[in-house]
Design goal:
- This protein is an alpha+beta fold and 489 residues long.
- The protein is 49% helix and 8% strand.
- The chain has 20 helices and 6 strands.
- The strands form 2 sheets. The protein has a 4-stranded antiparallel β-sheet. Strands 3-4 form a two-stranded antiparallel ribbon.
- The chain starts with 12 loop residues before the first helix and ends with a helix.
Length: 489
């Protein structure tokens, strides 16, 4: 079978292991996030119930197991199956069998998670959802340890990383002037959706360093991706730069699994000899198929080449988008969410406005009443609290709270959320860090907006506050339940 040697990449076994196990780990985290949050957000009694959404769609345009029937029990069954399959792949068990076994496992994950995403509405409207779906589908064709890694799939995974990085770079060039005049990071660490524990320290760096950060970002996203396709060791060096810059983003913010996806994809460009040279404990030729004959079955070659052609054909639309002046950000061009276009933060918000939700048990909702603030797990609230590191776990409610002042607070889901707080709904309260009423019902709830900024070092020493906040105005006046519902009727 020497005639298929052009198709085989025996020197990329470490890359395959990282890609398969890393992608499966991200699926585990994404599905766990859904198991913990989906029923309260989108379940039968959620903020945007899936049964009502599906009934309101004459045709659900994207595939989902829930298009015919949804129940919270079925959702939990789908999540349990996804968690079991992803754990098996992280452990490397399907990879020990024939190549169709990991293929089946990854395609099952892809279909299960796509079923969740496609009914997730605004709570699943993030670019990293389609990124994870595309990763899962493509990694499925890397085969098992009985065959060498296929070169065409590795190249397609590098192409996915290229679109992710170069697309993000181009959206910045097409976007706000702050990326072109190198001032974007004067603001971004402070105004990003969910700061992490190191975000304030990053924000307080001198402005010349922030300008260097932006220059480094442009280099990493607009220049380095082309070298991912270069011969070794250049491709591995380019991958190393991607990993380094993504780890900086992991440390300075909370972007769910976006940065970890890029880190995992970067290994598609790392060869075993380079990996061994950097980390000597990584063995060379750990795949027995690298020296065994025969290696690639004809049926597997045919399957992989067919998928390669499919993904290359689908690449026409994202290429055209990348070259367009009206570049779309995080867009899919087909119902299966394959070969998408990506990008993030084309413009940077210069001021941080937070929506603070409060409740009171007073009969009259005057300002002098005892208003108590609800605490969220990830989004800023308590000015003394150190932000936590949540990524790659995804707090969907907290992320959407960031979008409210940028769009409108008059979102259907937000009013539903306030109603659940008035009901002291246990599943909704579990999405929060702190319920100021310990499970009791408030009489009224309201929403106010505040301008937040990071405290300077001097302010922190003086007050112990990590944030300085200033009240802007009341965005939603006090709301209460109808009298019949207040008494549980």
């Amino acid at each position: 079978m020497d005639w298929v040697s052009w198709f085989e990449a025996p020197d990329y076994e470490f890359a395959r292991q990282m890609l398969q196990r890393g992608t499966a780990a991200l699926y585990f985290i994404a599905i766990l996030s859904s198991l913990n949050q989906f029923p309260a957000l989108l379940g039968e009694h959620g903020l945007l119930p899936v049964p009502r959404y599906v009934d309101g769609q004459r045709i659900l345009r994207r595939p989902s197991l829930f298009r015919w029937k949804y129940s919270d029990a079925l959702l939990r069954a789908v999540c349990a199956a996804g968690l079991a399959v992803s754990l098996a792949l992280v452990a490397g068990l399907p990879q020990l069998g024939p190549p169709w076994l990991p293929l089946t496992a990854f395609l099952a994950l892809w279909l299960l998670y796509m079923s969740i995403v496609n009914v997730g509405q605004t709570f699943y409207g993030f670019g990293w959802e389609m990124l994870l779906l595309e990763m899962g589908f493509t990694v499925a064709f890397l085969g098992s340890e009985q065959t060498p890694p296929p070169k065409t799939i590795l190249v397609l995974l590098v192409w996915l990383l290229f679109r992710l990085e170069f697309g993000a770079g181009m959206i910045k060039i097409h976007g706000g002037s702050e990326w072109r005049d190198l001032t974007a990071l004067y603001y971004h660490h402070e105004t990003q959706p969910m700061p992490g524990p190191l975000s304030r320290l990053a924000h307080l760096l001198p402005k010349p360093l922030h300008r260097m950060e932006v220059l480094g970002n442009h280099f990493a996203q607009l220049v380095v991706p082309f070298f991912l396709f270069a011969p070794q060791p250049l491709a591995s060096i380019a991958a190393g730069i991607v990993v380094f810059t993504q780890l900086w983003l992991v440390g300075s913010g909370n972007f769910a699994w976006l940065n970890w996806s890029a880190i995992i994809l970067a290994f598609a460009a790392v060869s075993d000899p380079v990996a061994h040279a950097v980390l000597p404990f990584i063995p060379l030729q750990r795949n027995p198929a690298a020296t065994a004959v025969p290696q690639t079955p004809v049926w597997w070659l045919a399957v992989v080449l067919a998928v390669t052609v499919l993904l290359l054909v689908l690449s026409y639309w994202p290429i055209r988008n990348l070259l367009s002046r009206t570049q779309l950000m995080n867009a899919s061009f087909n119902r299966w969410q394959l070969v998408n276009t990506y990008g993030a933060f084309g413009t940077v918000t210069r001021h941080r406005v937070e929506i603070v939700v409060e409740g009171t048990q007073a009969d009259v909702p005057v300002d002098e009443a005892d208003w108590r603030e609800y605490g969220f797990k990830g989004k800023p609230g308590d000015v003394r609290r150190l932000p936590r590191q949540w990524a790659p776990y995804h707090l969907r409610l907290d992320w959407l709270m960031w979008f409210l002042p940028l769009r409108t607070v008059h979102e259907e889901w937000f009013y539903a959320f306030l109603g659940k707080l008035l009901d002291a709904d246990p599943p909704t309260l579990r999405l929060l860090r702190q319920d100021p009423f310990d499970g009791a019902r408030p009489r009224w709830v309201r929403a106010r907006s505040f301008l937040y900024r990071f405290a300077t070092r001097a302010e922190f020493r003086e007050t112990g506050q990590r944030w300085i906040r200033m009240e802007l105005y009341e965005v939603i006046a006090p709301l209460s339940l109808p009298k019949s519902r207040r008494h549980g009727h």
